[in-house]
Write a structure and sequence with these properties.
D-Maltodextrin-Binding Protein, domain 2, single chain, 24% helix, alpha/beta, binds prephenic acid
């Protein structure tokens, strides 16, 4: 049974808040952590910008590319082997997104892309079956850049996966910590390790496109004065030395990824997409033009009166000031028109759009909001997977 959620307002001065020009009020659904894996680090709730459904979460191990196991047991949601499925991700081979894809879809083929938009376009053009996007992290909050992308395109969320992100400081073989003058990595990774790097005396940080791309750059240019922040798997893949493990500023650093598919491919897959016995989760976006708090209360009331649990609730408010960008949403029902909204709510709820109660709640919300779009309905996976 799911525990009753509590609402928290996260610190608006978090890195996530400064990463966007919009005002963000994080109303977060926090589910108290009742089960902690002996291997999982303690949660530091004060700095959490996104709460994960940790009540049933436990750190999971992916054992050397074989059948994924959770603390030694086969995983509960039983990922189907996905040989032949092509998953587009942003970054070079060895990026966290690629590991997330291979964990979610064992045996899949991965397609490296320069940008997240390219990964989405690969699915739209039929070059890939899925795109994987990091959408929120315990340290960063919601990755609005990726939510924005999601909303501008007509792809459906078909799966979620949360990965424990352990950042390592990597260097060319034989390079000692004292020889390192600068650090390169994905801007998110650099932001997640800022304090630790400063403590190591490493103040020169330069962003590159992804963590594995940084490692590739070290390797191909034989950079002897530079270190990269990336995963231990990337170190193995590119043959680099690990100078330090776990350099993230918060010990509990989890990124949630969503896998997206084209609606046409889902129609072809039919009922096989949702095995009947699996608990489902639905992601939706609610857009409106004013009365933010009223709409928020209506959304909460529509779900709570029907006893439907929310696992995510994020409120985005763009003011009318010129430098604050509105949220653009593709209205899939109105011939794919792109519409701009100053106020948006991201909502994830437990259940499916086929549940009568959920349908009623959505109908009720639709009467207040200007646009309600269902982003996808998929198997809920509360586990956190660890690459070790
Ligand atoms: O650069 C990578 O390895 C990625 O997969 C991207 C990404 C991100 O964009 O958030 C994913 C997870 C990590 O938190 C850091 C970076």
């Amino acid at each position: 049974m799911a525990s009753a959620p509590s609402l928290k307002i996260a610190n608006p001065s978090s890195p996530a808040a400064s990463a966007t020009s919009r005002d963000r009020l994080h109303l977060l659904v926090t589910i108290p952590s009742t089960v902690a894996s002996p291997t999982s680090p303690p949660r530091r709730s004060a700095s959490l910008a996104v709460a994960f459904a940790a009540a049933s979460a436990s750190a999971a191990s992916i054992n050397g590319g074989g059948v994924p196991k959770i603390n030694g047991h086969p995983r509960i949601n039983g990922f189907e082997p996905a040989a032949g499925l092509r998953v587009a991700f942003q970054g070079a081979p060895g990026a966290y997104s690629e590991f997330a894809a291979k964990t979610a879809l064992p045996g899949c083929d991965t397609l490296p892309c320069r940008a997240f938009a390219d990964a989405i376009s690969a699915v739209e053009r039929g070059l890939a079956d899925r795109a994987i996007l990091p959408v929120e992290s315990t340290m960063e909050g919601a990755a609005l850049r990726n939510y924005d992308l999601l909303l501008r395109h007509d792809l459906r969320v078909v799966q979620e996966i949360s990965l424990f992100v352990n950042y390592c400081l990597l260097a060319m073989p034989g390079v000692s910590p004292a020889e390192v003058r600068r650090v390169i990595s994905h801007p998110v990774a650099l932001a997640h390790c800022g304090r630790a790097l400063a403590q190591l005396g490493l103040h020169r940080c330069e962003p590159v496109e992804d963590t594995a791309g940084a490692v590739e750059m070290l390797r191909s240019n034989r950079l002897l004065d530079t270190a990269a922040i990336a995963s231990p798997r990337a170190a193995l893949l590119y043959g680099l030395d690990v100078l330090a493990h776990g350099v993230q500023d918060e010990s509990w650093n989890v990124t949630r990824f969503l896998l997206l598919a084209a609606p046409t491919s889902l129609a072809a897959a039919g009922a096989a997409v949702h095995p009947k016995q699996t608990p489902l989760k639905t992601s939706m976006v609610v857009a409106h033009r004013g009365g933010s708090m009223v709409v928020l209360l209506k959304v909460l009331s529509a779900f709570s009166r029907r006893n439907i649990n929310l696992t995510k609730l994020e409120v985005i408010n763009s003011s009318s000031k010129e430098d604050m960008a509105p949220v653009f949403i593709l209205d899939v029902k109105a011939k794919g028109t792109l519409r701009a909204f100053p106020h948006v709510l991201y909502v994830d709820f437990e259940g499916s759009t086929e549940d009568p109660k959920a349908m009623e709640a959505i109908d009720e919300i639709s009467q207040t909001a200007e646009l309600v779009r269902i982003l996808g309905c998929y198997a809920a996976d509360p586990n956190v997977y660890d690459l070790h």
